[in-house]
Amino acid sequence: MSTTEVPDLVPAGMTVTGPPRRSLVSRVVGRLGGFLATGAIVLLGVFWLTPVVGLAVASLRSTADNSATGWWTALTDPGRLTLDNYGALLRNEGVLNSLWNTVLITVPSTVLVVVLGSLAAYALAWIEFPGRDWLFVLIVALIVVPVQVAIIPDAKLFGSLGIYGSIAAVVAFHVAFGLPFAIFLLRNFFLAIPRDLLEAARMDGGRDFTIFRRVVLPIGWPAIASLTIFQFLWVWNDLLVALVFATSDNAPITYTLREQMRAFSSNVDVIGPGAFLSMLVPLVVFFAFQRYFVQGVLAGSVK
Amino acid sequence: MAEVALAEIGKRYADGTRAVESLSLQVADGEFLVLVGPSGCGKSTALRMIAGLEDISEGTLHIGDRVVNSVPSRDRDVAMVFQSYALYPHLDVFDNIGFGLRLRGMRRDDIASRVNRVAATLGLTEHLRRRPGSLSGGQRQRVAMGRAMVREPAVYLMDEPLSNLDAKLRVQMRAEIARITRRTGVTTIYVTHDQTEAMTLGDRVAVMRKGVLQQVAVPQELYDNPVNMFVGGFIGSPPMNLVEGVFTEQDGELSLRLGDQTLRVDPALAAAKPGLRACLDQPVVVGVRPEDLRDASMDDRGAQTVLNSEADLTEALGSDLYVHFSLPVPAVVTEDVKELARDAGADSPRERADRTMLVARFSPRSAARAGDRIAVAVDTARLHVFDRDSGRSIR
Ligand SMILES: Nc1ncnc2c1ncn2[C@@H]1O[C@H](COP(=O)(O)OP(=O)(O)OP(=O)(O)O)[C@@H](O)[C@H]1O
Ligand SMILES: [Mg+2]
């Protein structure tokens, strides 16, 4: 019997390999690794989400139910859930006021840090002036100063300025503590922008502020978005600074909710929905900005 | 449109580096001047001083009839094309090109008509709404050109605008740049370290070395009459062969001794270079361009101008046959030669041993092959002669 050899139609220099053949053991290990990783992530998710879900469920139960049984019992009897707590909360002026205070504190603290921080970062990255590098080192050094160390001197300072206890005092403190890191982060990011790009803008007729606004800001947007989220979350969730610098009229929600804690029981009907509401806002902010965490914004600009 | 005049311009960087030394240059209105030289010779620094991106340490810079030493870039009426293109990544092609006009507060429809006109010239019309990230290298290069053109400046400054393109595209864009600058008649200063670009584009070419201007001339003059060994070796590809030799005179006739061989020298050389008679009987550096070395077996020139050797290597290019051979003459090793070799990325083959490597450009019909005995006819009327110590041309 004659067989005709069919030549392989493969370009020279290429060897044909089938799908990678792996031993049973390595496949089992691979699978197992995949399962383990997935399992770990799920576990972590459950671990983090349980208190949040618990809080959400508790906020939907009546005071009596909450003191009688744990929140998980509601899962088998969802008919007893009610929005009453939220209704009560929205009629509670103290809580509403403090939610509003939180906004009044957080928005300027975030905006000021982002605006001042990015301007300073641009100057430190791209404008030459004597002592620039030393100034930057000094600012970076300020990052390591712990909040606790500054509280008492700042309280005295604000006292003598007559703003102690006001929202302005809380904002001032947050801005002062947010700026060093903001400048550090943004300056390094701005410095990574190719010099040619700024020089091109300069040749195109831009002055520093125009270059900042039209070239550096759009390109630095991912860093600015990250910074905005972090600063926003940090200020929104802050309790320590508020406890020290705000009077109860100017207190943010964290402060007010804490006052609802008692020695032996707590007002779950206020804390639950209050805490849940105060969590929603940062979530919205996070999702609004997270789509800007894109890589490769510089694609195609140079080379 | 304007003329640009540099008078004894110098640049000292903050760290003490002297990048440019007393550079004087006149670029006429509408002229295309190429600044060329090996890496690090200060070309970019010179250009950036003209652009206003770098402070001028010494000297005065005129653009038009103004001294612009302390005028900011935006008021100098110059546009620059960067080697990296420096396109704004967040803007589309239209906005990249129109950016400068917007910053200058031009009306929107004026901007649109100008941008569209430039885009049409450059073949970018269908890409106007794309971002630089999705363009090919050649298209990016065009956008960078368009950004300069749309402003209709008095002077174009270009810093190695083609060096990021592949060879084919580079030739194509080179022609396009020549076409555009010729048509617009805008004064152009063009930096490159590619001597082919320099020769093909420049109305005049300025050769720099270590911050010092060596020679400014029209390309052919630079090629035919380099002022020194450096310029001679830098301009031309393959580069000029440099060999040590001695001229002698007998009965009013010059001859050249290269190692153990002697060539009769065409009287035209002595006539063109009267200075030659002052350095007879002493070693000089002789420069021979590859095309002045031909296959003697295909040439009817007298046998007295023939060098005998053996071909080490031949390279057939289709149009030419490059023949590498060596002569038993100690290699010329000077600062110039070393720098030229460094620039060519070679570890100075001429420095090797006591033989000098040469390249001849034979006709492609030549039968010479590696290992063959060859007879190389030398066009002695076209020799270049340099002082061995100073490197200066002897004329
Ligand atoms: N900002 C700077 N500070 C100090 N020295 C510099 C600076 N910029 C350039 N130099 C030095 O000045 C010299 C000339 O640099 P320049 O960039 O002008 O060279 P070039 O001719 O453009 O070279 P290339 O062909 O590599 O672009 C080099 O020695 C370089 O190291
Ligand atoms: Mg350069």
UniProtKB/TrEMBL annotation, chain A:
GO terms for cellular component: plasma membrane. It is found in: Cell membrane. It comes from the Bacteria. Keywords: Cell membrane, Membrane, Transmembrane, Transmembrane helix, Transport. PROSITE patterns: ABC_TM1. One of its GO terms (biological process) is transmembrane transport. The keyword Disulfide bond does not apply. Belongs to the binding-protein-dependent transport system permease family. PANTHER family: ABC TRANSPORTER PERMEASE PROTEIN MG189-RELATED-RELATED, OSMOPROTECTIVE COMPOUNDS UPTAKE PERMEASE PROTEIN GGTD. This is Sugar ABC transporter permease. It comes from Catellatospora coxensis.
UniProtKB/TrEMBL annotation, chain B:
GO terms for biological process: carbohydrate transport. The keyword ATP-binding applies. InterPro entries: AAA+_ATPase, ABC_transporter-like_ATP-bd, ABC_transporter-like_CS, ABC_transpr_MalK-like, ABC_transpr_MalK/UgpC-like, Mo/tungstate-bd_C_term_dom, NA-bd_OB-fold, OB_MalK-like. GO terms for cellular component: ATP-binding cassette (ABC) transporter complex, substrate-binding subunit-containing. It comes from the Bacteria. Residues 4-235 form the ABC transporter domain. GO terms for molecular function: ABC-type transporter activity; ATP binding; ATP hydrolysis activity. Pfam families: ABC_tran, OB_MalK. Keywords: ATP-binding, Cell membrane, Membrane, Nucleotide-binding, Translocase, Transport. This is ABC transporter ATP-binding protein. The lineage of its organism: Bacteria, Bacillati, Actinomycetota, Actinomycetes, Micromonosporales.
